[in-house]
């Protein structure tokens, strides 16, 4: 296997807040190979965006603080070398943001913004002289070439009437078109590595579908590598080769798309996938509890307070290492060990991990419900059956 | 089963001759003592312009919608953003006055009632909104938020109210010590539970759920959905669920109306809609669902190349409003406006390709 294009090892990021020091990213290992699309999935607040911001050196510092770990791009260590980081970012990375309305300036036309991207692309610093030059006298020839290049890219992203779009402001475009413009701008600098932070979340499914297709095409065409951040596992299936499942600033599980989505091993992955309403089935159990407080994260596995298979004295001790039951399929959970093969591991997952819909957010409440309790807990366990005999009237 | 409503006449308004014959009147959706009966409901918003703010056009947010919600069922309205589904919900809850059409709740037409006459109806229809952070007053404690409907309707003594609030919190599985907290101390799922408790305070019959879980993470969403289903069973509630999540409706809705630019494109019971979608728009929506598990792929129509986005509702396309994006469009689609046509038991669809409505499944 060749060296990975991007590699993060043992990344730690803290945030200084009024409540204390939040240990948000706690030892994340991640790599993206050449020509590969990797997705990070997880719920809001799990640290996916912070990871992306660290890679793009966009982490607000303070309050953020990188307290440990390495970030290597083509073997070059970047975290300890901000100028190199800036240069690599300018030369080889592109980023697509989530919300096209806030990431595009409302006071410039699409053409002006694209021209700026082309003018300053690849430069880490722009001197006053250069700035003045490009503001005062844009050279005609350059201008024309830039315009043509912009039109070509907009065209590739299937924007109707690209020439007209160049003279329009973002408000005049629909959500899908704006997102296309944003993708076009990320591609303008001819990056070899793209980070996409939930680029389709704000869009309707039909538009999302078109955009994923387009993005896929562009990636294949240019042979780009991409890190795709999303909370939507369906989208991850469409676009990713490999998937990292992230929980509370740690990687819970990583594997190929099919391994993660069809045969998940980590209790969190299983709970997460089960909770999604699917065409086939929908488990109403969800996952008990809430994301932990980052200022005082649980000892050991950060998922153990919510985990149905948590083992006393094991899961609350040390942070679980990544076990690798199948080549490339790693899981941070004490249910598994290094001796297991893929088949064994899957069996363990199926027998040991059982989410029960017993209590909702608060385990302590359901027991104090008095006379309603029995009927209710019966209800929940039979949630999937349409037998609805229990019309106890509740408190009507 | 024919209903004696005024549906046919105006629902097929601008449609050209031939499709009018068999319209929504023979609709099996419209039947037996429903809790909510919506007939040809329209809500237009004027677009003003010029020096004197004269009306220069209108947005037909809801344009001739008819359906029934039966007692104890979940009726889902699905559609993309801007299709008018939220306006429909608000008009039904009479937060907006409709432009025309009727909304019959429990046999009473509430579409033209004044505020005073509406007050008793307001107890029966309650709304749960998408984003609990903005729908709960940040300066009130949970107990005051949940008790507010009781105060507005002047029900009970102080002690009774407080008793009621406590039992409601239990009902939505929140601990009693939440009574004295403020919304910002709660997580998203907990806030949505408070919003649900508030909606239940007055013992409503119908809940309008406007994207109740789309602001929540999936592991939390699952629990809120479970709670809503449990409440529906226990309290015999009827739900009007407004959502864009088709996979969710498949799992919890009894019947579904697919909306596009203010009109229903297809109505059917949930199982039927997913098994055999008849309208090209529904096909596209279903084909665009991102699936999570491999096994889901079989339950989806084949991949359809989707084009374009929802057009500007103030200037909808001529003929069938969906034709510019439709993968099955024929020439007639740009000029003739289709009407809802029966395509099966409890199933109708708005598409010219269905012909004149004498479809296979006719009696």
From TrEMBL, chain A:
GO terms for molecular function: ABC-type nickel transporter activity; ATP binding; ATP hydrolysis activity. The keyword Membrane applies. Transmembrane segments: none annotated. Keywords: ATP-binding, Cell membrane, Ion transport, Membrane, Nucleotide-binding, Translocase, Transport. It is a peripheral membrane protein. CDD domains: ABC_NikE_OppD_transporters. GO terms for cellular component: plasma membrane. Its main location: membrane. Residues 384-396 have a biased composition (Polar residues). It is found in: Cell membrane. This is Nickel import system ATP-binding protein NikD. It comes from Natronosalvus hydrolyticus. The lineage of its organism: Archaea, Methanobacteriati, Methanobacteriota, Stenosarchaea group, Halobacteria.
Automatic annotation (TrEMBL), chain B:
Residues 36-286 form the ABC transporter domain. It holds the Pfam family ABC_tran. Keywords: ATP-binding, Nucleotide-binding, Transport. GO terms for biological process: peptide transport; transmembrane transport. Residues 1-16 have a biased composition (Low complexity). CDD domains: ABC_NikE_OppD_transporters. SUPFAM superfamilies: P-loop containing nucleoside triphosphate hydrolases. Residues 1-31 are annotated as: Disordered. Coiled coil: none annotated. GO terms for molecular function: ATP binding; ATP hydrolysis activity. This is ABC transporter ATP-binding protein.
């Amino acid at each position: 296997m060749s060296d990975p294009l991007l590699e993060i090892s043992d990344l730690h990021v803290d945030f200084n807040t009024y409540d204390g020091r939040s240990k948000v990213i706690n030892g994340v290992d991640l790599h993206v190979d050449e020509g590969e699309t990797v997705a990070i999935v997880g719920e809001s607040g799990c640290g996916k965006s912070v990871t992306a911001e660290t890679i793009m050196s966009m982490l607000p510092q303070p309050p953020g603080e990188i307290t440990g770990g390495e970030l290597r791009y083509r073997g070059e260590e970047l975290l300890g070398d901000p100028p190199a980081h800036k240069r690599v970012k300018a030369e080889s990375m592109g980023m697509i943001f989530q919300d096209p309305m806030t990431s595009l300036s409302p006071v410039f036309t699409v053409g002006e913004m694209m021209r700026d991207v082309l003018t300053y692309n690849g430069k880490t610093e722009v001197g006053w002289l250069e700035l003045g030059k490009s503001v005062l006298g844009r050279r005609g020839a350059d201008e024309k070439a830039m315009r043509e290049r912009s039109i070509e890219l907009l065209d590739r992203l299937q924007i109707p009437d690209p020439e007209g779009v160049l003279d329009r402001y973002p408000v005049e475009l629909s959500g899908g078109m704006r997102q296309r413009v944003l993708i076009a701008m990320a591609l303008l600098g001819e990056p070899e590595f793209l980070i996409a932070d939930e680029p389709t979340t704000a869009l309707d499914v039909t538009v999302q579908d078109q955009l994923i297709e387009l993005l896929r095409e562009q990636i294949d065409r240019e042979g780009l590598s991409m890190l795709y951040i999303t909370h939507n596992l369906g989208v991850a299936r469409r676009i990713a080769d490999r998937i990292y499942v992230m929980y509370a600033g740690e990687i819970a599980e990583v594997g190929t798309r099919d391994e993660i989505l069809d045969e998940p091993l980590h209790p969190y992955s299983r709970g997460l996938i089960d909770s999604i309403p699917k065409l086939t089935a929908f488990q109403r159990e969800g996952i008990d509890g809430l994301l932990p407080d980052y200022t005082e994260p649980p000892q050991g596995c950060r998922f153990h307070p919510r985990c149905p298979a948590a083992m006393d004295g094991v899961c609350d001790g040390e942070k679980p290492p990544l076990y690798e039951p199948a080549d490339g399929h790693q899981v941070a959970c004490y249910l598994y060990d290094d001796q297991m093969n893929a088949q064994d591991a899957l069996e363990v997952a199926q027998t040991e991990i059982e989410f029960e819909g017993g209590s909702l957010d608060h385990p302590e409440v359901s027991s104090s419900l008095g006379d309603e309790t029995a009927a209710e807990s019966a209800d929940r366990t039979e949630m999937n059956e349409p037998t609805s005999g229990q019309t106890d009237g509740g408190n009507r | 089963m024919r209903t004696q409503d005024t549906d046919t006449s105006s629902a097929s308004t601008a449609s050209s001759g031939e499709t009018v014959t068999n319209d929504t009147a023979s609709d099996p959706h419209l039947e037996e003592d429903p809790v909510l009966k919506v007939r040809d409901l329209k809500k237009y918003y004027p677009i003003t312009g010029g020096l004197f703010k004269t009306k220069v056009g209108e947005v037909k947010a809801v344009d001739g919608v008819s359906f029934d919600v039966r007692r104890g069922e979940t009726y889902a309205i699905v559609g993309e953003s801007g299709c008018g589904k939220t306006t429909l919900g608000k008009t039904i809850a009479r937060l907006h006055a409709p432009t025309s059409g009727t909304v019959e709740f429990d046999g009473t037409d509430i579409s033209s009632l004044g505020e005073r006459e509406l007050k008793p109806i307001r107890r029966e229809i309650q709304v749960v909104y998408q984003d609990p952070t903005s729908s709960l007053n940040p300066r009130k404690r949970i107990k005051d938020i949940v008790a507010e409907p009781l105060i507005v309707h002047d029900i009970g003594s102080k002690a009774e109210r407080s008793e009621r609030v406590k039992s409601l919190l239990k009902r939505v599985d929140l601990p009693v010590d939440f009574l004295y907290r403020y919304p910002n101390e709660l997580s998203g799922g907990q806030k949505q539970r408070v919003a649900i408790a508030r909606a239940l305070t007055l013992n409503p019959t119908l809940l309008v759920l406007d994207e109740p879980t789309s602001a929540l993470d999936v592991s939390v969403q699952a629990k809120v959905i479970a709670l809503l289903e449990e409440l529906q069973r226990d309290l015999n509630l009827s739900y009007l669920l407004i959502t864009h999540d088709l996979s969710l409706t498949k799992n919890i809705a009894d019947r579904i109306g697919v909306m596009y630019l203010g009109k229903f494109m297809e109505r059917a019971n949930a199982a039927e809609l997913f098994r055999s979608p008849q309208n090209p728009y529904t096909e596209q929506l279903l084909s665009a669902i991102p699936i999570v598990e491999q096994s889901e792929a079989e339950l989806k129509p084949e991949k359809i190349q989707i084009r374009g986005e929802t057009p500007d509702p103030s200037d909808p396309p001529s003929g069938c409003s969906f034709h510019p994006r439709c993968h099955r469009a024929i020439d007639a689609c740009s000029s003739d406006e289709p009407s809802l046509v029966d395509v099966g038991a409890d199933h109708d669809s708005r598409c010219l390709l269905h012909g004149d409505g004498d479809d296979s499944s006719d009696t």
